[in-house]
Amino acid sequence: MLEKLAILLAVAGGLNWGLIGLLGLDMVELYLGGGVTILGRAAYTLAAMGGIGCLPLLFRRSGR
Known about the structure:
Layout: H1 2-23, H2 27-32, H3 38-58
């Protein structure tokens, strides 16, 4: 369950970074005020935690 949540958060963060890179559109800034608001900082922090939570998946053996 936690791994799925981590993947979901990492995907959301990756999509946001993709939009920033391709279109210059930051969805967190647009909807939550970016890094200057508590909600924006929370969104960025959750995306980072999702990425960190996915790290063990890189080292998992394929038989599981």
